[in-house]
Design goal:
- The protein has helices at residues 19-22, 28-37, 41-49, 56-61, 72-88, 93-103, 105-111; strands at 7-9, 67-69.
- Helix 2 (28-37) packs antiparallel against helix 7 (105-111).
- By secondary structure, the chain is mainly alpha-helical.
- Helices cover 52% and strands 5% of the residues.
- It has a two-stranded parallel sheet with strand order 1-2.
């Protein structure tokens, strides 16, 4: 969930947060990531407080996963295409990082990360 894009194979596996079933709490940093990445309160409740095992298609519907794919191979192919597409944009890494930090202020606060001003050269 900490990645900007999450791809999941639909032929095998689930998204499962077992902490409630195991009787353990979430570390602060992980709770902040979960709050930031699981947009719907209902989805967060089901995943974190019910220990729901979420299959790929459902994770896409819940907005937790970017896309679902039929096999490991098709997931890798989709990830490579997405990576090439994003890399082709030739973004400035520091700018991307600062925008990303501004999107997740609670996570950054827990991790002690601060925003760094970037001066545009255009």
């Amino acid at each position: 969930m900490a990645h900007d894009y999450v791809l999941m194979r639909s032929d095998r596996g689930v998204l499962y947060m077992p902490e409630v079933d195991l009787g353990i709490t979430l570390p602060d940093y992980f709770a902040a990531v979960a709050r930031a990445k699981i947009g719907s309160a209902a989805a967060a409740r089901d995943v974190l407080l019910r220990g729901l095992k979420v299959r790929a298609a459902e994770a896409v519907e819940m907005g937790i996963v970017h896309s679902a794919h039929d096999s490991a191979e098709s997931t890798i192919e989709a990830a490579m295409r997405l990576g090439e597409e994003l890399a082709g944009r030739k973004w400035v890494g520091d700018v991307y990082a600062e925008i990303r930090k501004s999107l997740y202020p609670q996570v950054c606060g827990v991790l002690g990360l601060t925003l760094k001003p970037i001066i545009s050269k255009i």
